[in-house]
Specification:
Enzyme I, Chain A, domain 2, about 15% strand, Glucose Oxidase, domain 1, TIM Barrel, alpha/beta
Amino acid sequence: MTEHHIGAQRRLEGIPASPGIIIGKAHLVGKSRVKILYQYLIDERQLNREVERFKGALRTEEEKLVTLRDQMPNQVKDHAFILDSHLMILKDSMFVDSTIERILNEKIDAQWALKESLEEIRKVFEQINDEYIRSRITDVENVTERILRNLSGEAEQGLTEIRERMIIVAHDLSPVDTAELNISKVMGFITDIGGRTSHTAIMAQALEIPAVVGLESVTELVQAGDLLIVDGNTGEVIINPDDSAIIHYQEKHLQREKYKSAIARISHLPAETLDGHKVAVMANIEFLEEVTAARDYGGEGIGLYRTEFLYLRSKGLPSEEELFEDYRDVAGIIGPAPVTIRTLDLGGDKFASELYITKEMNPALGLRAIRFSLKEPEIFRSQLRAILRASAYGRVQLMFPMISGLEEVLEAREILEQVKDELDNQGVEYDHNIKTGIMIEIPSAVAVADILAHHVDFFSMGTNDLIQYALAIDRINEHVAYMYQPFHPAILKMIQQVVQAGKNAGIPVSLCGEMAGDPLCVSILLGLGIAELSMNARAIPLIKKLIRSISLKEAHEDFENVTGLTTAKEVRAYILDRMKKLLPELDEKGYLNSGEKYF
């Protein structure tokens, strides 16, 4: 958190979790954590009773969650899966069985045993390289806190009793807390902790209430009744603002609403340049429940369906039938538009189940994605069968992640052909012409793209990983995150090399990393010849607006101009200047005047 003092007002900077600007009074929620200070030894004759006490706390929480899920407001019913994931935690072996084993083996009380189980789960999640998956530990922590509260008998402060329009200020809010909010009274919320990919952030976005998280100590700085300005677009929070700040943010709010209306009208128009060149603009999704939003924002299909969630939320492996039903539903809802399903991009480091494998020193370079699938062929075959079966219900494509060379492609395709033969022998329907592609996200795959292109139907560039691997940086490491540079000349040359390899082989090249949804990258990517962009659904309207504002000829000129530049800073400065001509409301930091942030 960054803090600035201007007169009597205090200006804080946190993490923007849900967009919008609000001005209102603070309502402090004192949700202190249950403190487990001591371990109590349990008499052996009372151990079974202690286990039953723990199971009773689990049942109580399950009943609460089921009731809350069934009574969720209409705005968030599509996100009931978040509460389902909490219900799954209540049945997870690392959460439940390990706690019971600790009670019985160590002869300790349920609270301390549960605390130890949480610490063990934390160690697992700390090994995870993917930011989104790693952040799911907050859901385990939320469930643990509620179980501990049930065990201790401490009353929980409800959020449903607020009687006037207020801004919630809390140390943390769980998705359960967010689902319980009285939306007619709650304007938005700010918290000490949290991240932009948390389920609480997702719930806030679904409810369309502004939220800023990760403010570290805002609960210590704000008093009940203080006037607040919360900017969910930039992460700014102002405590007791002066008149000029209030007027400024009121104007930003009006500009943002006007801006939203303008680009909303474009969202369902084709992404076509001024000289008639069409680009497919698709959505990336994590869950089945996101398909509707992808369509509503104008997505022309699903360019990347990450399939890891079903594996992570299960106590064990999801069955082929579970996978099939999920993939079939995605294909059916988005149809007749296409969906590209990426096979499992997890490694042993990411499984919180019996699949857990010995921790690796560097999981980003270890046994993950296609490497894991090829090492565990039965898991791989089950997913391939589910994807193929789902292809009978829509336009399904499948894609292998983290390919480093031809051997992996050939081995994966051989297993795919074996699975097809099995389905043929069983008389199971599927699309015999299903298109199969690979993700280009490792520099070695870029180097041999001309070879790989003759063995697949399409390429999809995963620039998030490609940038990290190519520049040897970890973008979640605060010491080197500044080196994560999409405009680095080396990255642009890599994209150009892959596009050219695809063009020579007659296969399309799409891009599904964060660059796809970055407005500053649009012109360059068009100039490079990217055929399809896939991004967070919320970015689609603005990207379409920009595509419709330039010609392909201009995009080619932009790319030619940046090829003569030698640093990422020079490339970004050139592109920023170009984009400001298309979007006069863009400032030097990459913000719209309305407060909308590009990055």
